[in-house]
Every structure is written in structure tokens, then in C-alpha cells.
Specification:
The complex is a heterodimer. Chain A is α/β, with parallel strands linked by helices. Chain A is built from 12 helices and 14 strands. Chain A has helices at 6-20, 44-48, 60-72, 91-98, 101-104, 134-138, 151-161, 212-227, 244-254, 269-281, 303-308, 313-324; strands at 2-5, 24-28, 53-55, 76-81, 114-119, 144-147, 168-173, 180-183, 196-199, 204-208, 231-235, 238-240, 257-264, 290-294. Chain A has a 7-stranded mixed sheet with strand order 3-2-4-5-7-6-12, with helices on both faces. In chain B, helix 1 (6-34) crosses helix 2 (49-56). In chain B, 49% of the residues are buried. Classes of the chains: A alpha/beta, B alpha/beta.
């Protein structure tokens, strides 16, 4: 176990993937000479050379499509898209090709492509660089969509994603880049598709992912210390396919569920989780499922408004206390 | 010019046969469409056969092909059995894409045929990526990507061309310019109608050929492929051609005069090659009859194969969404009920 920043954990994950297989290469805007828009890949060009750390022109659809083609041709590309807002320019390639070719070809073509996308608020980048659009990708059959809400996953999710025969979208969080956390020296349990209990508890299940994880963990620890409330924190990790079994197991234990996410509330991960709890564990509930989600507004520039647009630690604490009162 | 030899004679007869079987196959497909045996969209290639026949005759088995939704001709020329193509259009499990794709999504990866792509221009970046994988692995195959002039108004065309030229990958980009993007003529879609110049704009070696003349297409293909194989660089080839039939079976052809279609039919690539062969090589009526009956036999058998096909049971619907077994969660459930 080592302590490092989320940024350093991401870089370590990239470095091991590149070391493990010579067919792996990273392609993205400014990943090489610039060192990565958020300095994640800084130094990798010097270490691996321009054939494996490929700067590409500003053409999200073009280079994502080229990544799919290279994967079809036997390579193991990692495509980096600078922010989730830009990923919409590549949505045709991700949805109509990467997620669809296996089916459309009657099972002949699988697409072992990994796409890394930065996501979320935290750097005052306003309404075209800061959104939480995990639900857009989680809607698409044929994709694996995973969300790195911990340092452990920042370092190791890529390791599991590289083994997938199908396309994997890894969502990373710019707001967490400078935070420090623990990273295990060997691959942790859970693989790519399992949710993980980050804190055991018996009073309520707080189900979250991505940028929701550290806030919820902090809220749960403080409530334990201050109020003796034992909240269980479940990090979904994989948003498609959803690890429904882990969600239901936690809810059946605590009989209460709060879902926390930065994404907009309507047609979101939390609405899906809520529906599945209702469908499968309705009679296990002692209270209605509740949700804390992003307000349905484009992300604003000022820091205080940016913070107000998504659930914060104090709101999570207050909601848990209210649900248990 | 090719030498006037027995080998060249049989090569040209081979090209004639290739174009004839594509046309006969599609005439039959249109007939089966009108009988409701085939549904969805059916885009016929009739009139444009010289492009697929001429270029694909120059490819090696390891070369890769990506085509559009108007790809029956390319699939046949590549050697996908006519029965498997017809069965695909019938939606049968015996189809080359197991019936999942239909007319617009013919795939046969063992023959390096990567679709059958129906988002206009969306397969162009894929082609660039496949060619990049060839370069990265030190292989020698060429990727050939077919698209229409309509695709060249899409951003993905420009992104794919820029990347291919930037990376210098072994890629043949083939514009099948049939002058209409669905029903909109070129003058309403391209500010600059010098199509070839759009290849040169990316610093790519570029050429234009009469796409109604299979021998000229073959020669242009040979030249382009020689260039790509010897330099490893991409090449842009414009084939000027014309679609004799409607865009799809739903098209009433309100956008062009019948007289225009009739004028182009005088350039029918099949008719032209047949006349050339008669003039140069004493190609006989009985030889022509033999080719016709071979086409007829192949197409009849293709229909029989498709008719005898087996529709996939709905129980296996969820396969091919992900590799391996379907996800046990939401993907396997159409609806849900409360489980107590």
C-alpha cells in the first residue's frame, strides 16, 4: 500500500498497462508533448516514445474511430478524451461502432478498446468542461462503463479494463486529481464489474459512485464519530452492467437506501438503482429510497455556484440523519 | 495497356462475369424485396458494378475492405458466398452476419470484409485505424475503404483523411461518386465539386477514374495499390459512376430526370466490356450465354439457400451484445415485476 495523488495513481495505471503489453498504446489530445491536459500522462512520452504515446489532432470522432479500427486490427489502444463534454463529438463512434459492431456482425467482431474520459466539477471550468454524464454511456448496451471513485480504482481499473474483450469507458474525475489516497501494490479484488463496500454499516445503505465516493465516505465517517450512525457506503464502480446483487444485498441488510450522485437527477444512475431496489427489494425497505443528485442546471463558473450544483458532504450528512430520524 | 494475351482475355471475362453476377444477384434481391421476402432498406448498386469488380480484383486476401450500406457488390466480389448474402437479407441464421445485420451490414471477417456500415462516413475513421494497426505491427496488408461523395460532406471524412495523411498509413480511400447523396445532387452538397482536390488538400496522392469502365478502374486500382504497397502511404481515388436504380426501394426518384438515367445507361459497364471483348477477343454469343446461365444458377441457388434458412429463435436474442454470456442484470429482462 502506498499513498499518492489520484493523478499519480492514474499515471501508474497507464504505465503498468504500457509495460505489460507492447500492443498497448495511448492516444489522445496533448497526451505526449504537453504531458496531458491534466498532467496525468506527464513523462510517459519520454518513457515509452511517440509510437506508444500518440498526440492526436483535435478530432474526437476521428481518433476514437481510429482507436476502434486499431483494436479491430489487433492492437490494444487506450483512447483518452480530454473531457466528457468533448466525448459527445465521438459519440457516433462509441455508440454506433464500438458498442454495436459485435452485434451487427453476428458475433464476428469484438472491440477491445479502452476509452478514458475526464469528468465532473471541481476546477471552475464552467458549462462545457465539467459535466457528469456517466448516465449517457451507462444507457448503451455493448459498453462496459466504469467509474473510478477511489485511488485504488484510479490505479487499477485500467488493468482490469485491458483484459475486457469488449469496449470499456473509464470515467475519471478531474476534481479528485490532487487528492491523496491509498493504492495497493497488487490488483485489488472486484475486477471490473463488481461494486464494493467501502465502509460497512447497518443503519442505512448509501449507494454512490465516482466523485460521490469520497464525499460520502467523509460524511459517513463524521456521522459515525459524531452521532454513532453506521452508514454503509457502497461504491458502484461499474455503471454498466450494474452490480445489482451487491446493491440488493446491502439494502436487505440495512433496510434503507440513499443514492448519491453528481449527475442530473432525471434518467440517471440513481433513478435506475432506485427502480431496481423497488422491483427487487421493496418489502425489505423500512422507508422510501431517497436520492441526492446534481441540480439540473449547466455547470456554472463561480466556485460557490459550482459547489452548489452537486451534493456536498454536509447535505449528505443531513439527509442521512433525516432518513434515520 | 495490358497485352493482348489469352491470360488477359480470361481476366477480362472474369471481370465481366463478376459484374454480371453482382447485377443478376441484385435484380433477384429486388424481386424478393417486392415479394416481401427481404425487408428494411435495400440499396442497389446496379450501374456501379465496375468499381467493386475492378478494384477488388486487385486485392490480396489479407487486404481489408470496409464498405457502405450499398455493399452487395463488394461482398460478392470479395468472395462471400451469394447464398450467405441472400440469407442475411432474409434475416436467417445462415446469413454472413447471422441475420443480425441485413442488407446494410454484411460482415465476413475471415475474408477481411468489415461491413456493411450504414452511418455515412462513420467507417472512415475505422479504416484509418485498421491501416494504423497494420503499420504498427509491421504488416503489409492494405485497407480499402469505399464511400460515396455524400460522405465527403461529413466531418468524419475530413478527420479520417487528415489522420491517414498525418500518420502515413497504408490506406486506399475510394470515393464512389455517383453524383447523388441519397436524392440530393452534388451541386447542392459540395461547395467545391472538384472531388479529387479534397484528397490533395490533405497532401494525399490522388486520382480520378471513369468508374463506368472496369478496365480503367482495374488499372487505377493497380496503380494506387502499387503506390501504397511501395510507400506505405495513403491514396485517394475518385471513381465517377452512376446508380441506375433508385437510392433504395422507398425512393420515387423525384430529384432526377429519366433522360439523365437513360443517358448514363448508355455507359453501362457490363455492356461496354462485353462489346470490347467482342471486338478485341472474339468473345462469342455462346460464351456470353454460358456466363448468363452461370449467374442464373448461382442466384437461384442463393435464393434456395436463403429460403431453406433457419430464423434464429428469440431465446438467443441477447447474444452478441457483449462477448460471452449476456449480463444477468437488466440486459436479460424486457420488463420487471416486483419480486417479494
Amino acid at each position: 500500500m502506498a499513498t499518492m495523488t489520484y493523478r499519480e495513481a492514474l499515471k501508474q495505471g497507464l504505465r503498468s498497462a504500457l509495460q505489460e503489453d507492447p500492443k498497448v498504446f495511448l492516444m489522445g489530445e496533448d497526451v505526449g508533448r504537453y504531458g496531458g491536459a491534466f498532467a496525468v500522462s506527464k513523462g510517459l512520452l519520454e518513457e515509452f516514445g511517440p509510437e506508444r504515446i500518440m498526440d492526436v489532432p483535435l478530432s474526437e470522432s476521428g481518433f476514437t474511430g481510429a482507436g476502434i479500427g486499431a483494436a479491430l486490427g489487433g492492437m490494444k489502444p487506450i483512447v483518452e478524451i480530454m473531457t466528457i463534454n468533448f466525448s459527445l463529438l465521438a459519440l457516433d463512434q462509441i455508440v454506433n461502432n464500438a458498442a454495436t459492431l459485435l452485434h451487427m456482425s453476428g458475433g464476428q467482431i469484438n472491440v477491445p478498446l479502452v476509452i478514458r474520459i475526464s469528468c465532473g466539477i471541481g476546477r471552475q471550468l464552467a458549462a462545457q468542461h465539467s459535466h457528469s454524464w456517466e448516465p449517457i454511456f451507462a444507457h448503451i448496451p455493448g459498453l462496459n462503463v466504469v467509474s473510478a471513485g477511489s485511488h485504488e480504482d484510479a490505479a487499477w481499473m485500467l488493468h482490469f479494463a485491458m483484459k475486457s474483450p469488449d469496449p470499456v469507458v473509464i470515467i475519471e474525475y478531474t476534481g479528485l486529481l490532487n487528492t491523496e489516497g491509498e493504492v495497493p501494490a497488487t490488483p485489488p479484488e472486484g475486477g471490473l464489474q463488481k461494486a464494493k463496500v467501502r465502509k460497512e454499516g447497518s443503519d442505512i445503505s448509501v449507494i454512490t459512485y465516482g466523485s460521490g465516493v469520497p464525499k460520502t465516505m467523509e460524511a459517513a465517517s463524521e456521522l459515525a464519530a459524531e452521532e454513532g450512525i453506521q452508514a454503509e457506503v457502497l461504491d458502484l464502480r461499474c455503471l454498466r452492467p450494474l452490480d445489482e446483487a451487491s446493491v440488493l444485498a446491502s439494502v436487505r441488510k440495512t433496510h434503507r437506501a440513499l443514492i448519491v450522485e453528481d449527475a442530473w437527477r432525471s434518467v440517471s444512475i440513481s433513478s435506475e438503482i432506485s427502480a431496481r431496489i423497488m422491483e427487487n427489494a421493496f418489502y425489505d425497505l423500512d422507508a422510501p429510497v431517497e436520492r441526492l443528485c446534481g441540480l439540473e442546471v449547466p455547470i456554472p463558473y463561480p466556485k460557490h455556484l459550482e459547489e452548489a450544483s452537486v451534493p456536498q458532504k454536509d447535505e449528505i450528512k443531513a439527509r442521512i440523519k433525516k432518513m434515520l430520524s | 495497356m495490358k497485352e493482348n494475351t489469352a491470360g488477359e482475355r480470361s481476366n477480362q471475362i472474369g471481370l465481366l462475369f463478376q459484374m454480371m453476377r453482382i447485377r443478376r444477384f441484385e435484380e433477384k434481391a429486388a424481386e424478393m424485396y417486392s415479394k416481401s421476402k427481404i425487408r428494411g432498406f435495400l440499396h442497389l448498386y446496379i450501374g456501379e458494378e465496375a468499381v467493386a469488380a475492378g478494384l477488388i480484383s486487385q486485392l490480396k486476401p489479407e487486404d481489408r475492405i470496409l464498405a457502405t450500406y450499398r455493399e452487395h457488390g463488394h461482398a460478392l466480389a470479395r468472395g462471400i458466398p451469394a447464398g450467405e448474402i441472400m440469407a442475411e437479407m432474409y434475416g436467417m441464421s445462415e446469413g454472413c452476419s447471422k441475420g443480425r445485420g441485413g442488407s446494410m451490414h454484411l460482415f465476413d471477417v475471415k475474408r477481411n470484409f468489415f461491413g456493411g456500415n450504414a452511418i455515412v462516413a462513420s467507417h472512415l475513421p475505422l479504416a484509418t485505424g485498421l491501416a494504423l494497426s497494420t503499420k504498427k505491427q509491421g504488416k503489409t496488408d492494405v485497407t480499402v475503404c469505399f464511400f460515396g461523395e455524400g460522405a465527403m460532406a461529413e466531418g468524419e471524412f475530413h478527420e479520417a483523411m487528415n489522420l491517414a495523411a498525418l500518420w502515413q498509413v497504408p490506406l486506399l480511400m475510394v470515393c464512389e461518386n455517383n453524383r447523388y447523396a441519397m436524392g440530393t445532387a452534388m451541386q447542392f452538397t459540395h461547395a467545391n465539386q472538384d472531388i479529387e482536390s479534397k484528397g490533395r488538400a490533405y497532401g494525399m496522392e490522388s486520382a480520378t477514374v471513369d468508374g463506368m469502365d472496369v478496365l480503367k478502374v482495374r488499372a487505377a486500382g493497380e496503380k494506387a495499390l502499387d503506390y501504397i504497397r511501395s510507400t506505405g502511404k495513403p491514396y485517394f481515388l475518385v471513381c465517377n459512376t452512376y446508380r441506375f436504380r433508385a437510392h433504395s426501394m422507398f425512393d420515387a426518384e423525384l430529384y432526377r430526370d429519366k433522360s439523365e438515367v437513360e443517358a448514363w445507361k448508355k455507359n453501362d459497364p457490363i455492356l461496354k466490356l462485353r462489346q470490347d471483348l467482342e471486338r478485341q477477343y472474339q468473345f462469342s454469343e455462346s460464351e456470353m450465354k454460358a456466363l448468363e446461365s452461370a449467374c442464373e444458377k448461382e442466384v437461384t441457388e442463393a435464393v434456395q439457400f436463403a429460403e431453406a434458412g433457419s430464423p434464429e429463435p428469440a431465446e438467443t436474442l441477447m447474444q452478441f451484445v457483449v462477448s460471452g454470456p449476456p449480463d444477468p442484470g437488466a440486459e436479460a429482462e424486457k420488463s420487471s415485476t416486483i419480486k417479494s
